[in-house]
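Quick one - inputs below.
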Amino acid sequence: MKRILLPVLLTALSLSEICFAQTGQVLINSNLAGTVHPNPYNLYGAQFPRIEADGRVTFHFNAPDAKKVQVAIANVAFDMTKGEDGIWTYTSEPQDKGYHNYWMLVDSAIVVDPATNAFIGYSHMCNGFEIPDPDGGFYDLKDVPHGNVIIKNYFSKTISAWRHIYVYTPPGYETNTSTRYPVFYLQHGGGEDERVWFEMGRTNLILDNLIAEGKAKPFIVVMETSAAYKPGEVPPQPRAAGARPATPPDSTQRRRAFSFDTYKDVMLNDMIPFIDANFRTLKNANSRAMAGLSMGTFVTRVVALATPDKFAYLGIFSGGSIAPTDVPDKSKVKLIFMSFGSRERGADGLKDAAETLKKAGINAVSYVSPLTAHEWQSWRRSLYQMAPLLFK
Amino acid sequence: MKRILLPVLLTALSLSEICFAQTGQVLINSNLAGTVHPNPYNLYGAQFPRIEADGRVTFHFNAPDAKKVQVAIANVAFDMTKGEDGIWTYTSEPQDKGYHNYWMLVDSAIVVDPATNAFIGYSHMCNGFEIPDPDGGFYDLKDVPHGNVIIKNYFSKTISAWRHIYVYTPPGYETNTSTRYPVFYLQHGGGEDERVWFEMGRTNLILDNLIAEGKAKPFIVVMETSAAYKPGEVPPQPRAAGARPATPPDSTQRRRAFSFDTYKDVMLNDMIPFIDANFRTLKNANSRAMAGLSMGTFVTRVVALATPDKFAYLGIFSGGSIAPTDVPDKSKVKLIFMSFGSRERGADGLKDAAETLKKAGINAVSYVSPLTAHEWQSWRRSLYQMAPLLFK
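Output:
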């Protein structure tokens, strides 16, 4: 296998660059587009999943004693074929550019491939693969000034519990010690958590690159999970199939799970004050943005759209659109950014929705990500499109 | 299940604290010792693995179509029993206190349980569970001043590749902007990477707590993987069983994999200069320490023991001992700290090895972690014992 792969690979990058995935940040490279190469999230030199030159993906899985092995790509299962050596193989159709979750089904049990890095998604751990995008240089790790990604814990009085957050500070934050910065609060989707905008979204690299080109103002980004339950509140029940299915939630529990009222209190009363106390922030609505993807768009509506005194910039990625009647105080909104992947159902009406907002006197921008679905490439591109419009 | 568990749990902590694992940092709590509770790394409210009051662990796994399901705890497989509902169960013997890797074997295929957070270990992703330690408060997340954990990327000229590192800066680092700090370089074991001293080792919390009690000086910690290969060098081959087994490495490859000569160049020529340029460090041997666990002790020998002009403090956790003849310049060594878990083979001779070093005029300290093996509780305790001895 190596004899076939090496000549192709060595034209694109050195061997040292492909053999050890390092937590998903380092090894994505838009120059790999059109080459055959191991998935960059593979661990310890594993050669499979292998990304083919045309964006198909070849999976191998070692399960000599299994009766049936499937690979689920973004929640759709495909049968693998068993070889005489006990290795099951499958080569997919060409995949959309960017990051995709996958997992294995071994005799119907949903499991994670231990040879590939694991990421949160679909309310359980998943594996990931990455199709390089020749136009994906905006999220490559480049030789430009880099901000910091800082992992912090803070205590929320609202729920009497510690919270885990990721904070991006832009290049220069540490040295320009008299400068204060605007803050962008960025929300994940359903079944995800505070890690994803860093690990799959590549938020820090997208902003490093935009700031280096002078296309975006330097600002702080805060990433947190919206999962937040007061003592006595019952969170949604697990759906990860490896775990024992719990009793289905009753309707009260379901409403609670999607209300985000508790998270609104956590964010407004605990998290934003913590950020303002521990980082050099600008503490006014015109210096505060919030955006979310999918379920995170509901969180953005509940928290930020509802509090125009606190947030002037809003982003809605793959979560419908906003109508003028949804906006409590038009005079205070600086921007409503709305996006979809072109393969998503809501994409067609988005431009009209933005026009309607504009006619009502609200600055609105719509964006449709070409040839992508309800997945990370749509959201990386949405961040890249929205960031230059912030805090102007 | 909840009816049985809740009264027990509510005596120890509120429900909100147990239901959502957040990247492994938040929910470990020494107060849980002696209670029945879900493993804190479970995702989305999954109830299993469940930690029993006496330290046994009950595993559930949903695999109705599998012929055989096992759970491997620290690389030893135990048969699970299938119930009529298709759920396989197993309750272990009482486990040692602290963190343990586990994974599942579904019809002999090594896989990861998607309902529990995943961690790197054994050269592949693993699941983890945690047995609370009533004396483990030293790594609890507490209401004390917290340092930052910063994720950085830097480019290594030695190997022409980007590198991914975790840097801990102590409380006060951001505000005491004229203070410079010593640096502790901390190495993982075989089959692990730069994440583990943060995710399982809880380095930041151990140091936050020690510094708050005035027991350790504030210092910076840098965590990186020793995996580093120049263009053309062949890294060790994958052993993760989910992946296709590669051709076994020849003896040249094996020697390279364990030589660490390339990593020595990376660290001395690229990484330490990067740290010294980007953090307010003290740039002398008496302000530099290095320690590693298991395979990381070899890295520590190759890099730090061999360069007394660069490092005055050395730690060897679960990786043999150091003899006076191993020390190139006794006058420059400030400390050699050596430790083992009491269940490890080398534990018995460690005190004598330290005495021999002391007789040769070298300040040596030995530590044996009670009732622990070649696992994380030995290394958390080793860090806790060594940190107060540094930079005095």
